[in-house]
Amino acid sequence: MQKYHYRTAFSNGFSLIEILISLLVLSGAIATMFSGFEASSQLDMQAAFESEAAYIAEREIELAKSDLLAGRLAVAAAGRPGRFRMKPGWKVSTAIAAPDSDGAVRLQVTTHKGERSFQLESFVFVPDSEVKQ
Asked: Could you give all domains of the chain from N- to C-terminal order, each with its CATH number?
């Protein structure tokens, strides 16, 4: 008895259903990859803003500390504008709190650009909290 082996259409290559499923999986992977690029771009823009804002705020805090220690700035000055020329769209304000019982003065600098804001705080010990005349 001789066996015959018949080849069917489904045994050669891929079927249309298999190709469509693989294309669906591939398109899902590509869409996920591009959404990851968008998230990466947003995080990069946020990091650039925070880096620039921290630089500006640190510069203002160091200048205020220097002025406080030299006696050129009154303690408890609120809403003091920035002392440097800013890039377009950037705004800076400095708040200096009254000294506590130990003579520590709290400095707070807030930088704004559009809807975003960044706040940096620091402390400085001012032994004589009155401005020198």
From this structure: 14-125 (3.30.1300)
